[in-house]
């Protein structure tokens, strides 16, 4: 397989590496993040430092916290930014953000141009760290981003929409064309802001039950609720919660799923 180089770096396809090279997009991202001097900002997958440089050029911040698993990039980033960064050479999927927040004495702001192949997995991994996260700004493959932010009664609305919005307020910011990256991906990207709920708008339940319930409902999304959830509920039980049992999975709100999950928990 032919190797692809960008700025003398051999791009690691196995890690889904793509690099931002559009200064207008970089400016727009940093403007939307609106970093402040006193904040502890964690950049996940900084690559060759396009966002890192723009943030450091924009504000007189003490340092940026970087998480990068590619040792070649780690060495380059250290040479480029020296004492303006604190870098962790590791896989973000094993990073303990509780420890990171404790180390720096405050909540964290997370940003990043995430590889498409870990983006969804990372968002779910971060559910358990909500108490130490102020907000997050991440790029997603556009189709995945639209699913994350989707509302009920929409074909893009599904399990990912529900479990993500249960934990975060999701705000789509702007699309990013494929030509903004090297190598050029086959899809556009979407920049999304995530704000953890401080006071959840949904009933507090066992999230595993919510996940199980939505998995069952959306596995057969063309079936009506009375059929897709018949393993757990009879039609009368669904009606008693003010839910029309002839609706399909995509027509049910997060609150309604939470209500059903709470009942299932008590069974």
Automatic annotation (TrEMBL):
S-adenosyl-L-methionine binds at residues 20, 45, 68, 113. The keyword Iron-sulfur does not apply. SUPFAM superfamilies: S-adenosyl-L-methionine-dependent methyltransferases. It is found in: Cytoplasm. This is Ribosomal RNA small subunit methyltransferase A. Keywords: Cytoplasm, Methyltransferase, RNA-binding, rRNA processing, S-adenosyl-L-methionine, Transferase. Residues 25-198 form the Ribosomal RNA adenine methylase transferase N-terminal domain. GO terms for molecular function: 16S rRNA (adenine(1518)-N(6)/adenine(1519)-N(6))-dimethyltransferase activity; RNA binding. It catalyses: adenosine(1518)/adenosine(1519) in 16S rRNA + 4 S-adenosyl-L-methionine = N(6)-dimethyladenosine(1518)/N(6)-dimethyladenosine(1519) in 16S rRNA + 4 S-adenosyl-L-homocysteine + 4 H(+). It comes from Candidatus Blochmannia vicinus. Pfam families: RrnaAD. Its main location: cytoplasm. InterPro entries: KsgA/Erm, rRNA_Ade_diMease-like_C, rRNA_Ade_Mease_Trfase_CS, rRNA_Ade_methylase_Trfase_N, rRNA_adenine_dimethylase, SAM-dependent_MTases_sf. Belongs to the class I-like SAM-binding methyltransferase superfamily. rRNA adenine N(6)-methyltransferase family. RsmA subfamily. Its EC number is 2.1.1.182. The keyword DNA damage does not apply.
